[in-house]
Specification:
There is one protein chain. This protein is an all-alpha fold and 77 residues long. Helix content is 86%, strand content 0%. The protein has 4 helices and no strands.
């Protein structure tokens, strides 16, 4: 799950960064929204599937959420 969400986020972020002349400030909004949506989705997934996930998977999802929220904050600033 984490792998596919990461791939999708990379595609969205790269596409928005390569087309700033088309999207303008909407590109930053799309990036922020996608990072927030992915973080919240993975947080819900983590809470629901906590018992069935292995410890490395829990750590990976938790650290991804923290990093994506920090990245989102950097796009807001």
């Amino acid at each position: 799950m984490l792998k596919w969400v990461s791939y999708l986020l990379v595609i969205i972020i790269v596409a928005c960064m390569l087309t700033p002349h088309i999207l303008g400030s909407l590109g930053s909004g799309i990036i922020v929204g996608s990072l927030l949506t992915a973080s919240l989705g993975l947080l819900i997934y983590l809470v629901v599937r906590w018992e069935s996930l292995s410890v490395p998977q829990r750590w990976g999802i938790s650290l991804s959420i923290i990093v994506w929220l920090a990245l989102m904050y950097s796009f807001i600033r």
